[in-house]
Design a protein that fits this description.
single chain, about 170 residues, mainly alpha, globular
Protein backbone atom coordinates (compact mmCIF):
# COMPACT_ATOMS: atom_id res chain seq x y z
CA UNK A 1 0.00 0.00 0.00
CA UNK A 2 2.84 2.39 0.86
CA UNK A 3 4.51 1.69 -2.49
CA UNK A 4 1.24 2.47 -4.29
CA UNK A 5 0.89 5.77 -2.41
CA UNK A 6 4.49 6.70 -3.26
CA UNK A 7 3.88 5.98 -6.94
CA UNK A 8 0.68 8.04 -6.92
CA UNK A 9 2.48 10.96 -5.24
CA UNK A 10 5.21 10.73 -7.88
CA UNK A 11 2.51 11.05 -10.56
CA UNK A 12 0.92 14.18 -9.03
CA UNK A 13 2.51 16.57 -11.58
CA UNK A 14 0.88 14.55 -14.34
CA UNK A 15 -2.47 14.48 -12.56
CA UNK A 16 -2.36 18.30 -12.56
CA UNK A 17 -2.62 17.99 -16.34
CA UNK A 18 -5.77 15.91 -15.82
CA UNK A 19 -7.19 18.56 -13.51
CA UNK A 20 -6.47 21.35 -16.02
CA UNK A 21 -8.22 19.35 -18.77
CA UNK A 22 -11.25 18.78 -16.51
CA UNK A 23 -11.47 22.48 -15.61
CA UNK A 24 -11.12 23.68 -19.22
CA UNK A 25 -13.63 21.08 -20.37
CA UNK A 26 -16.25 21.84 -17.72
CA UNK A 27 -15.91 25.64 -18.00
CA UNK A 28 -16.20 25.52 -21.81
CA UNK A 29 -19.26 23.25 -21.59
CA UNK A 30 -20.88 25.56 -19.03
CA UNK A 31 -20.28 28.58 -21.29
CA UNK A 32 -21.78 26.73 -24.26
CA UNK A 33 -24.84 25.55 -22.31
CA UNK A 34 -25.44 29.09 -21.02
CA UNK A 35 -24.85 31.02 -24.23
CA UNK A 36 -25.80 28.85 -27.22
CA UNK A 37 -29.25 27.46 -27.93
CA UNK A 38 -29.40 23.72 -28.67
CA UNK A 39 -28.78 23.17 -32.37
CA UNK A 40 -27.68 26.78 -32.97
CA UNK A 41 -24.58 27.10 -35.16
CA UNK A 42 -21.98 29.86 -34.78
CA UNK A 43 -19.51 29.88 -37.68
CA UNK A 44 -16.07 30.91 -36.41
CA UNK A 45 -14.82 30.47 -39.95
CA UNK A 46 -16.89 30.06 -43.12
CA UNK A 47 -16.33 26.32 -43.33
CA UNK A 48 -13.60 25.00 -41.01
CA UNK A 49 -14.69 25.55 -37.38
CA UNK A 50 -18.21 26.02 -36.12
CA UNK A 51 -19.64 26.03 -32.61
CA UNK A 52 -22.91 24.31 -31.91
CA UNK A 53 -24.57 22.87 -28.83
CA UNK A 54 -25.69 19.26 -28.64
CA UNK A 55 -26.22 16.86 -25.75
CA UNK A 56 -24.85 13.45 -26.70
CA UNK A 57 -26.36 10.54 -24.76
CA UNK A 58 -24.20 8.10 -26.72
CA UNK A 59 -20.46 7.60 -26.85
CA UNK A 60 -17.86 8.44 -29.51
CA UNK A 61 -19.42 9.16 -32.91
CA UNK A 62 -22.82 9.08 -31.13
CA UNK A 63 -22.60 5.30 -30.62
CA UNK A 64 -25.70 4.40 -28.63
CA UNK A 65 -27.60 1.48 -27.12
CA UNK A 66 -30.82 3.22 -28.19
CA UNK A 67 -32.08 4.19 -24.76
CA UNK A 68 -30.71 7.31 -22.99
CA UNK A 69 -31.15 5.73 -19.52
CA UNK A 70 -29.32 2.55 -20.53
CA UNK A 71 -26.63 4.68 -22.24
CA UNK A 72 -26.15 6.75 -19.10
CA UNK A 73 -25.86 3.74 -16.80
CA UNK A 74 -23.60 1.67 -19.05
CA UNK A 75 -21.34 4.55 -20.08
CA UNK A 76 -20.89 5.62 -16.44
CA UNK A 77 -19.89 2.05 -15.52
CA UNK A 78 -17.58 1.77 -18.56
CA UNK A 79 -16.03 5.17 -17.76
CA UNK A 80 -15.36 4.21 -14.13
CA UNK A 81 -13.68 0.99 -15.24
CA UNK A 82 -11.65 2.91 -17.85
CA UNK A 83 -10.57 5.55 -15.30
CA UNK A 84 -9.41 2.81 -12.91
CA UNK A 85 -7.50 1.09 -15.72
CA UNK A 86 -5.89 4.37 -16.86
CA UNK A 87 -4.67 5.09 -13.33
CA UNK A 88 -3.30 1.53 -13.11
CA UNK A 89 -1.48 1.90 -16.45
CA UNK A 90 -0.03 5.28 -15.46
CA UNK A 91 1.30 3.76 -12.22
CA UNK A 92 2.94 0.90 -14.15
CA UNK A 93 4.42 3.13 -16.86
CA UNK A 94 8.00 4.40 -16.72
CA UNK A 95 7.80 6.49 -19.89
CA UNK A 96 7.07 10.17 -19.13
CA UNK A 97 5.35 10.82 -22.47
CA UNK A 98 3.16 7.78 -21.93
CA UNK A 99 2.29 8.98 -18.40
CA UNK A 100 1.43 12.42 -19.81
CA UNK A 101 -0.80 10.70 -22.37
CA UNK A 102 -2.56 8.77 -19.61
CA UNK A 103 -3.06 12.05 -17.71
CA UNK A 104 -4.68 13.61 -20.79
CA UNK A 105 -6.91 10.55 -21.26
CA UNK A 106 -7.81 10.60 -17.56
CA UNK A 107 -8.78 14.28 -17.73
CA UNK A 108 -10.89 13.69 -20.83
CA UNK A 109 -12.58 10.61 -19.43
CA UNK A 110 -13.39 12.36 -16.16
CA UNK A 111 -14.63 15.49 -17.95
CA UNK A 112 -17.18 13.48 -19.91
CA UNK A 113 -17.99 11.30 -16.88
CA UNK A 114 -18.92 14.42 -14.88
CA UNK A 115 -21.40 15.34 -17.63
CA UNK A 116 -22.91 11.85 -17.66
CA UNK A 117 -23.34 11.78 -13.88
CA UNK A 118 -24.74 15.28 -13.38
CA UNK A 119 -26.49 16.03 -16.70
CA UNK A 120 -27.19 12.58 -18.12
CA UNK A 121 -25.44 13.29 -21.43
CA UNK A 122 -22.21 14.83 -22.71
CA UNK A 123 -22.14 18.42 -23.95
CA UNK A 124 -20.45 18.61 -27.37
CA UNK A 125 -19.89 21.88 -29.21
CA UNK A 126 -16.87 21.94 -31.56
CA UNK A 127 -17.76 21.10 -35.15
CA UNK A 128 -14.96 20.89 -37.74
CA UNK A 129 -14.83 20.30 -41.45
CA UNK A 130 -12.14 18.06 -42.83
CA UNK A 131 -11.52 17.15 -46.46
CA UNK A 132 -14.61 15.41 -47.78
CA UNK A 133 -12.93 12.02 -47.96
CA UNK A 134 -14.79 10.22 -45.20
CA UNK A 135 -17.65 12.50 -44.19
CA UNK A 136 -18.89 16.02 -44.85
CA UNK A 137 -18.21 17.28 -41.31
CA UNK A 138 -16.55 15.58 -38.38
CA UNK A 139 -18.92 14.65 -35.52
CA UNK A 140 -19.34 17.37 -32.88
CA UNK A 141 -16.87 17.01 -29.99
CA UNK A 142 -15.54 18.83 -26.90
CA UNK A 143 -12.29 19.56 -25.05
CA UNK A 144 -12.37 16.24 -23.18
CA UNK A 145 -12.60 14.38 -26.50
CA UNK A 146 -9.77 16.51 -27.92
CA UNK A 147 -7.59 15.69 -24.92
CA UNK A 148 -8.09 11.97 -25.50
CA UNK A 149 -7.26 12.27 -29.21
CA UNK A 150 -4.11 14.30 -28.45
CA UNK A 151 -3.08 11.61 -25.95
CA UNK A 152 -3.52 8.86 -28.52
CA UNK A 153 -1.40 10.82 -31.03
CA UNK A 154 1.30 11.27 -28.36
CA UNK A 155 1.24 7.55 -27.57
CA UNK A 156 1.57 6.61 -31.22
CA UNK A 157 4.47 9.06 -31.62
CA UNK A 158 6.09 7.73 -28.45
CA UNK A 159 5.77 4.16 -29.67
CA UNK A 160 7.25 5.01 -33.07
CA UNK A 161 10.20 6.91 -31.61
CA UNK A 162 10.90 4.27 -28.97
CA UNK A 163 10.99 1.64 -31.69
CA UNK A 164 13.47 3.75 -33.70
CA UNK A 165 15.69 4.24 -30.62
CA UNK A 166 15.54 0.51 -29.87
CA UNK A 167 16.49 -0.35 -33.46
CA UNK A 168 19.44 2.10 -33.34
CA UNK A 169 20.86 0.33 -30.24
CA UNK A 170 20.84 -3.09 -31.96
Amino acid sequence: MIILVKKLVKLLPFYWVSLIVIILDQVSKYVVRSSIEPGQIIKLSPKLIWLTFIQNTGAAFSFSFGNPLINRFLFIIISLIAVTFIIYLSIKSKNRLEILSFALILGGALGNLIDRIFIGSVTDFIWCDFPDIIMTRWPVFNIADSSIVIAIILMIASTLFQKEKHEEKE
